[in-house]
Specification:
Lysozyme; antimicrobial; 2 strands; binds 2-acetamido-2-deoxy-beta-D-glucopyranose; lysozyme; about 160 residues; about 5% strand; lysozyme activity; mainly alpha
Amino acid sequence: MDQTGARYVLLVLLAVATTWGLLAPGRQNSLGLELCMGCICEATSNCNLTFHCTRGFCGPFLISQLYWKEAGRPVIPGDHQNKKGAYIRCVTEPYCAAATVRHYLARYAQDCNGNGNIDCDDFARIHYMGGRQCTISMENLGYYQVFGACHKSIRQLTG
Ligand SMILES: *[C@@H]1O[C@H](CO)[C@@H](O)[C@H](O)[C@H]1NC(C)=O
């Protein structure tokens, strides 16, 4: 399989995995958000689902402990928020990592780029810059360029 094919499979897997996790009662489901998170994952770590940590950023979404706390400290099944290592165990496990991102994006959802909508581009900015400084320009960052290319292909796939 070529790289694009492999990426597509990863994106779809992530979408399915996280959609599965989303089907909790009362939660709004959105395939668009899941695909968006696939592009964020791709831009963050090449969506490396086995990535551990670098300089305090862990898992495929490179989530810091503060980000995890602000996301409400989700945990893997059977774990507890206050147990030592709960943060690392969550953010290095794909389902829990995606749940962390989803909660963080929901908490800080805002129109960072000023285009009048809260959309995937805003989510990519919020994930990288944090919820309090997402209006900072990111156009020159490698992260944003990879995200942009992925987002463009997603838009072509979904119309
Ligand atoms: C994913 O990350 C691990 C740990 O850093 C690394 O050993 C592995 O080569 C990476 N995989 C890919 C596909 O980049």
